[in-house]
Write a structure and sequence with these properties.
Elements lengths: L11 H17 L1 H13 L5 H32 L2 H9 L3 H13 L8 H10 L4 H13 L2 H10 L2 H24 L8 H7 L11 H36 L2 H8 L6 H9 L6 H12 L5 H13 L2 H7 L5 H25 L1
Length: 342
């Protein structure tokens, strides 16, 4: 293995010191940037303005998170190679690994699309497929933002039940996917990382490690950027043009089929956690049961169409369909359980 060389006179360390403050500023002010571009310069009418604002803000968030998470995970891999991570996780009981992945999801407030970059990094690190899916489900489904808003609008009891049921769905789904042994549906480039053998030892400077991380960003983003863009465009269109009155008309009443309908209605939608819970709370004022409302929140959080578009570059369509079916059935079951308990 030859010593890594930077392609510029600017070292990788200096590049990080230059880029990170810019990254932090754009990420922090992403919504203000979107507002300025859409409402001060373009002056579009609704709902087009809302759609473009949502797209710019969300695209900045997902792109910046994608770059940062790939960089961090690639940097970690220079000290902790994939074969070591894989061995550590495989030495743990699968149930324990699933619980840890579920709890990690609770404290990382990602939306369904934001969780995909971390999902990719975990897969590259050799973490078992079921454990990575537990995180992918738990992070958007039971993140702290949803829990806080549920406590404020629906009460502590509903929030605790949601937390319990969300973790059950994430852990059970991950364990089931793991038992199905579907790693064969991962792409060849991803399996290369997962099947990494013990390499020869070569000393690396910090600059070398940063260089490796930048190369990893270039390679990974180059493979998936078109799917990320397609997912964000789809999410923005659905966010801006799906009317709330339609949801009220479809889900109102106390019919047995409202819960599966709520789960189906949530899949095409894409919204941040802060927006989902108030909408569900408003729908309860129009005759929708608590179980139906929770099903709607869970479906939007864990099963979004933009997420599936992004995942398509990472995993086979068959595996995506298995993932959808398992989580969908889990969400519907918990919806009925919510209504029975409340």
């Amino acid at each position: 293995m030859e010593k890594l060389k930077t392609t510029s006179s600017l070292s990788a360390i200096n590049a990080v010191l230059l880029i990170f403050p810019c990254w932090l500023m754009v990420f922090w002010f992403r919504n203000e940037i979107a507002v300025t571009l859409v409402y001060r310069f373009i002056h579009l009418s609704q709902p087009t303005a809302s759609t473009i604002h949502f797209f710019i803000s969300t695209f900045l968030k997902i792109s910046l998170l994608l770059f940062m998470l790939i960089f961090i995970l690639s940097l970690v891999r220079t000290w902790l190679p994939a074969y070591k991570v894989k061995k550590f996780v495989q030495d743990r009981n699968p149930f324990v690994s699933a619980i840890l992945a579920g709890l990690a999801g609770v404290i990382t407030p990602f939306c369904s699309c934001s969780a995909v970059p971390a999902f990719i990094g975990f897969l590259e690190a050799g973490i078992p497929l079921g454990t990575t899916f537990t995180f992918l489900i738990a992070s958007p489904l039971v993140n702290e933002i949803i829990l806080i808003m549920l406590a404020g609008l629906f009460g502590i009891k509903v929030m605790l039940l949601y937390l319990l049921f969300g973790l059950i769905i994430a852990i059970a789904s991950g364990l089931l996917i793991g038992r199905l042994n579907m790693e064969r549906f991962l792409p060849a480039w991803l399996l290369t990382f997962r099947n990494e053998k013990i390499p020869e030892h070569f000393p690396m400077t910090l600059n070398d490690r940063f260089t490796v991380a930048f190369i990893s960003i270039k390679k990974t983003v180059g493979r998936i950027w078109i799917f990320v863009l397609a997912g964000m465009i789809t999410g923005a269109l659905l966010h801006g043009y799906v009317p709330e009155n339609w949801l009220k008309n479809v889900l109102s009443g106390a019919n047995w089929y409202n819960i599966p309908l709520a789960a189906l209605a949530g899949i095409p939608l894409y919204a941040c956690s802060a927006a989902v819970v108030p909408v569900a709370f408003a729908l309860t004022d129009h005759g929708i049961s608590t179980g139906t409302a929770m099903t709607f929140i869970m479906s939007i959080a864990a099963l979004s169409l933009p997420e599936f578009i992004m995942l398509r570059k990472i995993i086979n369509t068959r595996l995506i369909l298995v993932f959808i079916a398992i989580v969908f059935l889990g969400i519907v079951s918990m919806g009925y359980l919510f209504n029975w308990l409340l």
